[in-house]
Amino acid sequence: MGLLTVGTPLAWEDMLHHSRYIRKHGVLQFLHTLRRMQHLENDPFLYGDEVEYGLLKVDPIRKTVRLSLRGPEAMEALRRQEQEELQGCAWHEEYGSWMLEGTPRVPYGGYVMGLLGIEQNMRLRRGRILSVLNEDEMAPTLVAFPLLGVGFTGSSIGASPASDSALVPDSCINPHPRFATLTANIRKRRGSKVDIRVPLFKDSKTTEFETATEPMIHMDCMAFGMGCCCLQVTFQASDLDESRLLYDQLAVLAPIMLALTAATPIVKGRLAATDARWSLISQSVDDRTPAERGEAGIADARMAGAGIRKQSKSRYDSISCFIHPGSRAFNDLPCETDEDTFALLQQEGVDEALAQHVSHLFTRDPLAAFAGHVEEVDDFASTDHFESIQSTNWQTVRWKPPPATSACGTGAPHVGWRTEFRSMEVQLTDFENAAFTAFMVLVSRAILVFNLNLLVPLSKVDENMGRAHAADAVGTQNFWFRRQIWQEAEQGELCEMTMDEIMNGSKEFVGLVPLCYAYLKHIRCDNSSFKHLDQYLKLISGRASGELMTPAKWMRCFVRSHKEYKFDSVVSESIAFDMVKACNDIGLGKRPCPEILGEVEIEPITTGQYETPLFCDKLGPSERKGLLQK
Ligand code: ADP
Ligand code: MG
Ligand code: MG
Ligand code: MG
Ligand code: MG
Ligand code: MG
């Protein structure tokens, strides 16, 4: 989840003294990158996904399931075995010490064949993870571990100096110092523990509704949010302008795709009234001071905005401004900006839309800094301070400038301007994860090639975001969408559409899935690739029409039809065990799931063996002897 600098993290009080410096130099580093890289053109279309996994420990006899806090160990083992093969995988740390992130080792290229490689690479990742698990472990792709915060009670809680949680010990935080530091500093900046509330699902015997009208599931630390697993896709644009255009267009799709991938109906051992994770994470890292949240509070000159500038959103939230110059008319949300940053950027010739975006990011304080790595950072050689702010603004889309290490103008390979799509929930199978990744690729290509315009006012995007969380949002909600999406159309009539209409089209609207087919036709996609992509588009289409279930709907049904369920919204340990096992088996192709997958059957995943090299070190006589002994 972002930048990992090694070193001793500064305590919050010390860190605060450096905040102004880091923010100021972060902006200078951005300006330097912009000047250096703004003229890039004709960069190839490249893209890559990120899938997050949770390691769990199961006891099939007692029917228990726990977190397995071996994420970093598993990551090291995976990294050690990974070879320099083009089609290999890369492994990254994640927030939870039970978590792991996998990406392709190199991004996929801009050919249709690349789209078929997504699923192969995801399957390879899942297989390779199998090869480093212990016998009693599994690593399903579940958004949230359903029992997090349940069962770590009493003396077994363990210390939690970083989070101060009464529910989850700090041992659940990745031991890399960055993560505990983020946790503690969010809490300290805020002035209290984070306060997460997710509405409880009302079943026929849920007792909480006898005493409260809208009972909540309460949670008290970052792990509940950042412990959620998601599916992200990053696209490289041909140039700066295109990366900004894609950012805006994809931001509109963020709530739509959140609803369509919803997979989070259970938190903290309870059925929730919502199906998606976003708001939970948003609350879990909400570092706003009381004054920023609209209550009384005192100024602290060391902080961004002196800690009293009103902030309408958490730093993990939907975007507050579009960034392409042509999108201006749709920016109708309050978008707080850092005045000094904005003034400097404008003075340096940065256009208004981009200046607004960057100075919005810079209304936040850095959350972690490392001793000997503040004033020492060279603004011309590093973007660490920029990244310190950028990587802790967790929004539905992220605009990623080229890294400092990226060469320019020398003809050497470089990383260009990228846009990341961040709202999707991770799916149970690689087939689905690949389908959603491929769909986003096709939609983004269609947007560019057909010159589409999906923009609606940002206030409508936020309304959609709220609706996307509802239980079975696909079947129950309408979403604001444009009927006319051809770029040359006027402003475009805004209307509320069902998910089915948005994806599959109607008399009035062409539909995103038909647009993907049109794109494939346009590029003359070969037959065998088409057959494969057709399966993906059928999944999206079926899910949108309600013919196929979202993972959230399936899980909710699983719990409610479990023989031990008491219709009280409680997901007991044995129900959780059965569900987690079922999810794992579905992901591994050991258990069919026509409710989610239709006719598609997942070919079983086999343990991803790494190739064994033929060359190795010379053996001494005794070792040789040992090997030859029967
Ligand atoms: P982060 O966690 O900051 O989003 P990661 O490195 O974990 O970054 O993932 C970034 C994704 O972007 C990976 O899937 C990777 O393959 C992909 N990627 C890397 N380089 C490029 C590029 N030049 N263009 C597009 N995607 C890229
Ligand atoms: Mg991640
Ligand atoms: Mg990542
Ligand atoms: Mg990351
Ligand atoms: Mg994450
Ligand atoms: Mg990412």
Automatic annotation (TrEMBL):
PANTHER family: GLUTAMATE CYSTEINE LIGASE, GLUTAMATE--CYSTEINE LIGASE CATALYTIC SUBUNIT. This is Glutamate--cysteine ligase. Pathway: Sulfur metabolism; glutathione biosynthesis; glutathione from L-cysteine and L-glutamate: step 1/2. It holds the Pfam family GCS. The keyword Cytoplasm does not apply. GO terms for biological process: glutathione biosynthetic process. One of its GO terms (molecular function) is glutamate-cysteine ligase activity. It catalyses: L-cysteine + L-glutamate + ATP = gamma-L-glutamyl-L-cysteine + ADP + phosphate + H(+). Belongs to the glutamate--cysteine ligase type 3 family. It comes from Effrenium voratum. Its EC number is 6.3.2.2. Keywords: ATP-binding, Glutathione biosynthesis, Ligase, Nucleotide-binding. It comes from the Eukaryota.
